[in-house]
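WARN retry 2 of 3 for item q-0093 after timeout on previous attempt; input resubmitted unchanged.
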Amino acid sequence: MAVQWKKKASQRTQMGKASQAYKSLIGTKSLALIPSEALPCPTGEQIVNGGFETGDFTGWTVTGTPAVLCDGGGALGTVCYVYDEGAPFSVEQELATPVSYACIQTFRLFYLNYGCNFPSVEVIITYSDDTTTTINILASHYDWTELNIKDYLEPTKAVKKIQVSFACSGGVLWQGCLDEISLVGNG
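OK item q-0093 returned
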C-alpha cells in the first residue's frame, strides 16, 4: 500500500510541475505559444476608436500620405476616415490581447469610394503566430458597403492586428472612406 501512495505522490508532483510550467508560460505573455482556444473570450469592442468618433486617430497608426477625417458623413456615426487623392496609405491597430476566432461575435468595417475608377481596399489580419490573411476588395462607388471580415479568418487562429489600406488606379478628385472598423468579443 505504501508503494502505491509514493507513486501517486510522484504523479501529483509531476502534474504540479506541469501546471506551474503552464502558469509560467502565461505569465510571460507569450500568447503566440498558447493555443487560440485556450485564450479567454473578451467582452465588447476590442478596437479602439474604430469609428474615429474621437475626431482624431487615437489608437491607430497612420502610414503614408496624411489622411483627414470627414464630419457628418460616416457609415453609422458622424465621423469617418477619408483617403484623399494621392499615394496609398493605411491605418493599423494591434489589439490589447489576441482574440480567437471562436471568441469573435462580429468583425467588420465599412468602406466607400468617390470618383476612383479602380479602387481597392486591402485588409491584412495578423494572427498571434505572425501569419496573415489578406483580403482585397474592389470598392463600390458612392455607397457605404459593409465587409464582414470574420468570413475570411482562419478559424483555428487568434487575431492580434488589423491593417486597412485604400488605393486608387485611375480617376481624379477621388476619395476613399473607411468607418466603423469593429471587432466585438462574445465573452
